Amino acid sequence: MRSAVISLTNPRQGAQHVMVVDDHPLFCEALAMTLTSALSVQTITTASCLADGLSKLRAGDTPDAVLLDLNLPDVAGLDGLIRLKAAAPGVPVIVVSSYQDSRIITSVMQAGAAGFIPKHSAREVFVQAFSRIWAGETFTPDSYVAPKARTEALRPDPAARLGDLTAQQARILDLVCEGKPNKQIAYELSIAETTVKAHITAILRKLGAQSRTQAVLVANKASFASILRQEPKGD
Questions:
Q1: Is-above-0.85 flag for pTM?
Q2: From 3.30.2310.20, 1.10.4100.10, 2.60.40.10, 1.10.10.10, which CATH number describes the 155-228 domain?
Q3: Which residue among 68, 131, 142, 189 is least packed, with the fewest CB closer than 10 Å?
Q4: CA nearest 66: which of 53, 55, 51, 76?
Q5: pLDDT confidence of 113, banded at 50, 70, 90?
């Protein structure tokens, strides 16, 4: 599916421009209808892969919200969510996915998503989700079972630690995962190399890592296979 921009009229207060990152054309069409008819969204930008969405964001196409499918051809686990949040600081990223396991939803929310909407939810659910998110809340489906606070505290989740990173730290970790040295990171982000070093020190501290390699391993653990291998958490 090629990316496209669909412009419509009659916006209402709230999200007037939404980016949808999903590689299923029929779902994108159905979602566009829901967003325009039920939420009066004026502009919908679509991207069929993460790279396309990131390219648009970096080119200055900044939406009011991003709807992200977790199952994309160029995404592994929570990588897409983390990279979108880094590319568009302050823009709520809402995951719309067919994955509905509570452990995955927990990790998605810990990684900083504004909400999680099951992919084939009724339009009323999307309206409720956007209403809550625009009111400063988060949204999870009624079927979601949150983990016990005590159990969660005893078992720190990689996604939770990644969610503690600032937008700039997330950008730098993304480049570290690509194997780029500090000098190249400094050049790409137009900052001093000493600033990169300071950020990496803070990243290692937040992730509980002793080296860049360990930091990359923590990022890789935020994959669905790793999440689902965890013991189910109780009610």
A1: no
A2: 1.10.10.10
A3: 142
A4: 53
A5: very high
